[in-house]
Write a structure and sequence with these properties.
- It contains twelve helices and eight strands.
- It is of the alpha/beta class and about 300 residues long.
- The chain has a six-stranded mixed beta sheet with strand order 5-3-4-6-7-8. A two-stranded parallel sheet has the order 1-2.
- Helix 2 packs parallel to helix 3 and helix 7 crosses helix 8.
- The N terminus is likely disordered.
- The structure holds adenosine monophosphate and manganese (II) ion (3 copies).
- Adenosine monophosphate binds next to helix 7 and helix 8.
- One manganese (II) ion (MN) binds next to loops.
Length: about 300
C-alpha cells in the first residue's frame, strides 16, 4: 500500500510514540512551547500534546512549532479538579483551543491562584520563610498561573531544601505550613468544557491520588458517566507496577489508554519527552479515538 492511500487511523496505533502530557512556561514548566516541540521531535515523539495546567495560552505556539517540525499535534490541557477532598487532574485532548466556554471555564479555574499563593506565603512566613510570594513570582512565566512548583523552585534556590520533592514533602502538601486548601473545578464542569469543545477527557496519573478503592471507583464511574473515555496508564508519574495496575483498570472499565511523560524541566523531571515504555498491546490508545482531531503537518497529509 502506498503512503498516499493510508487513512489517518492507520498512521497511529498502540506503538505510536505519543507523548500527550507535558508543561511549558505557560504553566509550571521551565521551557517555552517551541523548545518543547523541538525536544519532543529530537527525542522521537511522533504525536505530541502540550498540556499546561488550567491554561491553553500556549496551544497555538505549540501547534505552529510542532507542524513546522513535521510533528503531528493534539491540543491539550490539564484541568485541576476537586473530587472527594483531593485534587484530581483531568487531561483534555483534541479540543478547539478557541472555544469560548472552555476558555471561560479555565479562566475561572485559574482565578483563585493568586490569593492562594498569598496565603501559602503567609503560612511559610510563620515558619520563618520570608518573602516567598515575591520569590516564587520570579519563576512564574504566566502571572495567572502561580503554582506550588514555583514556590518549590524558590525554596530550593533560597537553600531551605535541596530539591523540589523535599519541598513538597516538608512544606507544600496537606498539613504542611505552605499548604492551602483550594476549591478547583468540579469534575462535571471540566468534562463538559473539554467535551463540548470537541475534545476527549483522560484521568491523569491515577496512581498519584490517595483514594480508597471505593473513592477511586466513584471517580472512574462518575468520569465515565460524564462522558470520559480515557485514562493515563504509562506516564512519568507511574512506576512499572502502577502502569501494570492501571492497564487492568483500563480494561476493566473499557477505558482507552493514554501515555505522557508529564515533563516539566530538564533539571527536575525524571522522565524526558518521548522516553516512555509502550502501551500494552491489550489496550486501545485514546489517540485512535482522536484521529480526526490530530493536526497533521502538511507533508504527512498528502
Ligand atoms: P498546583 O497546581 O499549584 O497545586 O501545583 C501542582 C504541581 O506541583 C503539579 O502539577 C506538579 O508539577 C507539582 N507537584 C505536585 N506534587 C509534587 C511532588 N511531590 N514533587 C514534585 N512536584 C510536585
Ligand atoms: Mn505541574
Ligand atoms: Mn498532574
Ligand atoms: Mn502534569
Amino acid at each position: 500500500m502506498s503512503t498516499s492511500t493510508l487513512t489517518f487511523p492507520d498512521r497511529v496505533n498502540h506503538l505510536t510514540n505519543a507523548d500527550l502530557h507535558c508543561h511549558s512556561k505557560v504553566s509550571d514548566g521551565t521551557l517555552e512551547p517551541e523548545a518543547l516541540a523541538a525536544r519532543a521531535k529530537a527525542n522521537g515523539v511522533t504525536l505530541w500534546a502540550l498540556t499546561d495546567h488550567d491554561e491553553v495560552a500556549g496551544q497555538q505556539r505549540a501547534l505552529d512549532a510542532a507542524l513546522a517540525l513535521g510533528l503531528p499535534y493534539l491540543t491539550g490541557v490539564e484541568v485541576s479538579v476537586s473530587f472527594a477532598g483531593q485534587v484530581v487532574h483531568i487531561v483534555g485532548l483534541g479540543f478547539d483551543h478557541h472555544n469560548e466556554p472552555l476558555l471561560a471555564g479555565l479562566r475561572a479555574t485559574r482565578g483563585g491562584r493568586e490569593q492562594r499563593a498569598r496565603e501559602m506565603a503567609a503560612g511559610l512566613a510563620q515558619v520563618g520563610i520570608k518573602d516567598a510570594y515575591e520569590g516564587a513570582l520570579k519563576y512564574v512565566g504566566n502571572p495567572e498561573l502561580i503554582s506550588r512548583t514555583h514556590f518549590a523552585r524558590f525554596l530550593v534556590e533560597a537553600g531551605h531544601c535541596s530539591d523540589i520533592s523535599e519541598v513538597f514533602r516538608r512544606y507544600l502538601t496537606e498539613g504542611k505550613p505552605g499548604y492551602v486548601e483550594h476549591r478547583w473545578a468540579r469534575l462535571g464542569d471540566a468534562m463538559r468544557w473539554i467535551l463540548e469543545a470537541g475534545g476527549q477527557a483522560v484521568i491523569a496519573h491515577p496512581a498519584r491520588y490517595s483514594f480508597t478503592p471505593t473513592e477511586e471507583y466513584a471517580l472512574i464511574t462518575e468520569f465515565i458517566a460524564h462522558g470520559g473515555r480515557g485514562i493515563e496508564v504509562v506516564t512519568g508519574s507511574h512506576s512499572d507496577a502502577d502502569a501494570a495496575k492501571y492497564t487492568e483498570t483500563a480494561l476493566e472499565f473499557a477505558l482507552l489508554a493514554s501515555r505522557g511523560s508529564d515533563f516539566h524541566s530538564p533539571e527536575e523531571s525524571r522522565t524526558d519527552l518521548g522516553q516512555l515504555k509502550d502501551l500494552s498491546g491489550r489496550l486501545s490508545p485514546i489517540w485512535q479515538l482522536l484521529d480526526t482531531r490530530i493536526h497533521w503537518p502538511p507533508a504527512a497529509r498528502q
